[in-house]
Amino acid sequence: MWKGRFQQETSQLVQAYGESVSFDWRLYDQDIRGSIAHAGGLLRAGILTQEEFDAIRSGLEEIRHEIEHGDFEFKTALEDVHMNIEAELTRRIGPAGAKLHTARSRNDQVATDVRLYCKDAAAMLQADARQLQRALIEAAERAADAVVPGYTHLQRGQPVLFAHHLLAYVEMLERDLGRLRDAAQRADVMPLGSGALAGSTIILDREAVAKKLGFSAVTQNTMDAVSDRDFIAELLFTIALCGVHLSRLSEDIILWSSAEFGFVTLSDAHTTGSSLMPQKKNPDVAELTRGKTGRLIGNLVALLTLIKGLPMTYNRDLQEDKEPLFDTVDTLLGSLRAFADMMPHVQPKKERMRAAAIQGFSTATDLADYLVRKGLPFRDAHEVVGKAVALGVESERDLSEMSLKELQGFSAVIENDVFDCLTLEGSVAARNHQGGTAPEQVLKQAANARKLLQS
Ligand code: ARG
């Protein structure tokens, strides 16, 4: 492609070191779409005749068809996907193919291809994140009014509905979806027409090319346009954070399925056994998802580090943006799909949940709130309940197992109605406000989340 200036061939070693086609071949569809749109610009500018344009378009479509059917041979000697496709096109259609690279550089070409890829990837990820939300909402609805301990510091805190806990992840995914939309919007600007860095003396109608490619806008500074990879960094951050959310869900599933918690059973199809210990049933999907999050974070850090020291404008370093990008997108798609597949088969063990929720004085805050409603300042109420809990610890009884007389020994304002707030159902139902864990509220949350699935 640059034989004019050079007397020597690129060394074999440098070819192997510098080629990117072994991974950027995946951009073939974006590259072909970009080339057809660019050829349209050249046609309107009078650089190509209609016949030449037609030959380019049908030649590229033929190549796409062959790639999709595994009949196309990518050559590492041709370095990257862009040169492989262009060289093969020119081999097939002759001089018209050689005109395609007019007013274009691989620098604006690759930036355009990767932006198209990011838009496509964000759309796929959004669809899969929605599927996981659906699976979580359905799991929440199936769990109905099952009560579990809610934890802080991984110590039993207050009883909550299991559904409430599951719907927390639907909220997290909703924020991830918003960030994916933002990332797609940032990618939705077309750099094509920026040339190598300074623009081109052959003036094309960039707006028209952008429209053909489905971009909402064109870039405003050619130098920035060929070197900007912010849109990849944003997508990698968005995906890494979504991965962090899935990792936390993984950790919950791993804990819940342990014998120590015993809150859920996982299906055989989503677990593995041990080659040595016959009794084992391991939560591999959750463990792998938790583990893969490390790659997502690593890829984000790799990209930021890649960009930080680059002088303007394009530098070959930027070729290193693609592997982290592809790996991150593939990894999150895999995790979202595995979780959406697993969640419908996560069976809550409601009796175990209930038994755990009753233990650990989980209604202590309810008793303090009760005393507040009877007129005690909260700090005093806190102390009263603390003393009652100390008795409970000593005599190995829950607050609800104490007699009215005993409780009145801690505070005279306590009456027979105290027992309503010491039961799990009473405790949960009392948190009847927007976002609270009362069954009525959780049902509302699930219904609202269902509406989001349509959008
Ligand atoms: N394979 C290159 C990349 O991924 C394409 C752009 C190459 N441009 C250049 N001037 N060598 O960045």
Summary keywords:
binds arginine, two-stranded parallel sheet, 3 domains, about 450 residues, mainly alpha, elongated, Ribonucleotide Reductase Protein R1, domain 1, two-stranded antiparallel sheet, Fumarase C, Chain A, domain 2, Fumarase C, Chain B, domain 1, 6 strands
Short description:
This protein is mainly alpha-helical and 455 residues long. The chain is built from 20 helices and six strands.
How many helices in DSSP terms? 20
Q: Helical residue percent?
A: 55-70%
CATH architecture of the largest domain: Up-down Bundle
Round the Cα radius of gyration to an integer and report it.
30 Å
Mean pLDDT: 96
Number of strand elements: 6
Share in β-strands: under 5%
**CATH superfamily heading of the largest domain:** Fumarase/aspartase (Central domain)
For the record, the CATH class of the largest domain is: Mainly Alpha
Describe the fold and architecture.
It contains 20 helices and 6 strands. It has 455 residues and is mainly alpha-helical. The protein has 3 domains: 12-102, Fumarase C, Chain B, domain 1 (Orthogonal Bundle), CATH 1.10.275; 107-204 and 214-354, Up-down Bundle (Fumarase C, Chain A, domain 2); 360-453, Fumarase/aspartase (C-terminal domain) (Ribonucleotide Reductase Protein R1, domain 1, Orthogonal Bundle), CATH 1.10.40. The chain has a two-stranded antiparallel ribbon. It has a two-stranded parallel sheet with strand order 3-4. Strands 5-6 form a two-stranded antiparallel sheet. Helix 9 links the parallel strand 3 and strand 4. Bound molecules: arginine (ARG). Arginine binds next to helix 7.
